[in-house]
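Pinned message: reference record for Maleylacetoacetate isomerase
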Amino acid sequence: MKLFGYWRSSATYRVRIALALKNLSYDYEPVNLLKGEQRSDAYLDKNPTGLVPTLVADEGALITQSVAIIEYLEEVHPDPSLLSGNAIARANARAIAATLACEAQPFGNVRIQNYLKNERGFDADAMKDWMNRWPGGAMAAVEKMLARTAGDYCVGDVPGLADCVLVPQVYAAKRFGVEIGALSKLNEIYERCSKHPAFVKAHPDNQLDAVKN
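Predicted structure (tokens):
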């Protein structure tokens, strides 16, 4: 397998966590979003959306969209499972993942940030308000969901799909100053995941294309 991605991309981060939890080996091809490499003809041939990540499966098939990639990995490499438990538990995991992936993360990605700053004239205060209203609001909703589903991790006591999506979103929230300090269960799970070897391996700072400040 080969994964095309960017070290600080939340969506790529999700897939790296899933690969690490499943102990799957893969080649990594960096796509520098800040240099616009995602808009090159060569990359658009692989992923017409111009987004990361893209997975090249062992049989050569191209798979895009992070959650779809994780679900593919779950089907092809079911052990250990990222969607364990009964049907209700699996539905809860998917619901948490979808809330973060659809209602939080897109509002903070590079192309949205650039549009707001460069074309709409958002200053730092306006950007902070934006991030707290949209990603912050979705994360507050997830906090309430976790009250019904969480054990040591988002759904029960084993890390899975929801944790793969939650951890990158919290990482991004901390970068952008989203006010999540009051979200106690979310932060508790994030801290627990941060000590797990698979999450450590997948952390942005531990990637070959990471930029050290």
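Pinned by admin. Summary line: Strands lie at 2-5, 27-30, 54-56, 62-64.
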